[in-house]
Hints:
Elements: H1 17-23, E1 31-36, E2 39-44, H2 53-56, H3 69-83
Antiparallel strand pairs: 1-2
Amino acid sequence: MSHTTKLSTKGRVALPKSLLAAHRWKPGTEFVVQERDGGILLTPKSATGSRTWASLIGCAGYSGLRKSLKQMEEAVAAEARRRK
Length: 84
């Protein structure tokens, strides 16, 4: 698939709407820009492996003691029973 776009006087490139929708890229999405043979490669920052386990720990906002896998499974089962 090929698309055409133009470089603005401010050095900006607009991505075609169909690509934005297909990849679900929203305003503010960060890209890594890499120079390649005769061109450039844009890769969404999250797809480049910038997320590590260390960066994801705590993303849910839990601040208590760590739970074992067994404890988590029991809690999920208890909540499922409660919702029935």
